[in-house]
Amino acid sequence: MNKNLVLHALHEVKDPEIDAISIVDLGMVEAIRGDDSKLVVELLPTFMGCPALDIIRKNVEEKLDRLKVFNHIEVRFINDPPWTSDRVSDLGREQLKSFGIAPPPKKINETGGWEVGCPYCDSLYTTMENLFGPTACRSILYCKSCKNPFEAMKPLSTMM
Amino acid sequence: MKKNDQSQMDSMERKVLIELLYQLADDDFILAYRGSEWLGLAPHIEEDVAFSSINQDMMGHAAMFYQLLEDLGEGHVDILAHGRSSKDRKNAVLLELVNGPGHYLEKPKFDWAFTVVRHYFYTQFKKIRMESLKNSSYQPLADVAVKVNMEIYYHLLHWKTWFMQLIDANDEARNRMETAVQQVFDEFADVLSYGPNGREIAEAGFIDKEEIITQMWKHQLLTVFESVNLSIPIKIKTKSGKGREGFHTDDLAVALSILSEVYHIDPAANW
């Protein structure tokens, strides 16, 4: 099986709600297994109630089907290991910023607080407007430097 | 010993695992529904956004627990969520009670104090329950618990903030919150209960003993109560029914008929 071919196709599947980033750079792809007769792709859900999951599954199936290499394709979501926000790649972090979304904070301090830089001007002079945003994985913030509202991806870690 | 599927269990273990999963699934399912009835009615727009997100997460958790039931041969998730009647539900009665008088479409006079207290106490309980389930002898359940536990970190933060602010506010807020605390305590024994086979559920290693979870929950809340000078008679009761045994209020039957209305128009429809 040509794994690179599969990976390349998966890079073309974007998050339906943030189309600047692929599911690979979001860290959702856990395993690519099987052979030309049967391909298994295992994905990790970001948040469990995310309504985009079924769309992602469908888009992955379509993209892989179009390669016309595999007789049977199975795409499934698994829970082990859990998706955590540190799985977002460095490229993914840049892509999120280009979309106006601050990447998930890498560090959380002892009191549970986190620092988020503005995706537009990089200032750390920002405030949290709402921990919960338009989708389960995002929060709403405001930059006091460049006066822009913006969103940030919530940190999610097994330490929580 | 860790169990990865039902072939590693005897029939009693399988039976009580299924019972526990129904409690987990039905609890989150009905409270997510009650939460969603607040859409457009929450105290302010930011709360509307936050609460919707929390409801969506909780419905996702319910879906995962129903999926575990489907994997054990209990039937399709959609049927488990929509097709079961009130007497087949295993959720705690506290979680099915209406948000207040009126209907979300007509003259809703929902009680925010009750909602805050119910969600805060339940989420605190759920956090402890998930921490315990992370060590469940049924590995697929332990995996789901790890995931749920990460997400409810934010829910707990949210409800605790509301609770602390309202209970420390002026006389009216304080009074209404104290009434709500009493109201929730009057029903909470049902939430803490594992039902008639509670002992077997814990003995199979699916979750820690009921008494341990109850103790930890009380301890968490009492610490918070002390910090806000709240002394409530800590008598935890089951006033309106025993959900784990299928004894529910009419509130549940009404809720089920509303939430499954579309499903029942055409149960075979593809979503």
TrEMBL record, chain A:
Identify the species of origin: Cytobacillus purgationiresistens
Q: Which residues form the PaaD zinc beta ribbon domain?
A: 103-154
Coiled-coil spans in chain: none
Q: Specify the superkingdom.
A: Bacteria
Query: Which InterPro entries does this entry report, sorted A to Z?
Result: Fe-S_Maturation_MIP18, FSCA_dom_sf, MIP18-like, PaaD-like, Zn_ribbon_PaaD
* Name of this protein: Ring-1,2-phenylacetyl-CoA epoxidase subunit PaaD
Q: Which residues does the UniProt record annotate as the domain MIP18 family-like? A: 6-75
SUPFAM superfamilies per the record?
A: Fe-S cluster assembly (FSCA) domain-like (SSF117916)
Automatic annotation (TrEMBL), chain B:
Enzyme category, top tier: oxidoreductase
Question: Is Protein transport one of the keywords UniProt gives this record?
Answer: no
**Do you know which InterPro entries this protein is assigned to?**
Aromatic_CoA_ox/epox, Ferritin-like, Ferritin-like_SF, PaaA_PaaC, PaaC
Superkingdom of the source species: Bacteria
This protein's UniProt keywords: Oxidoreductase
Q: Name one GO molecular function term.
A: phenylacetyl-CoA 1,2-epoxidase activity
| Enzyme Commission designation | 1.14.13.149
Which PANTHER family does the entry mention? 1,2-PHENYLACETYL-COA EPOXIDASE, SUBUNIT C, PHENYLACETIC ACID DEGRADATION PROTEIN PAA
Recorded protein name is Ring-1,2-phenylacetyl-CoA epoxidase subunit PaaC
Give the organism the record lists: Cytobacillus purgationiresistens
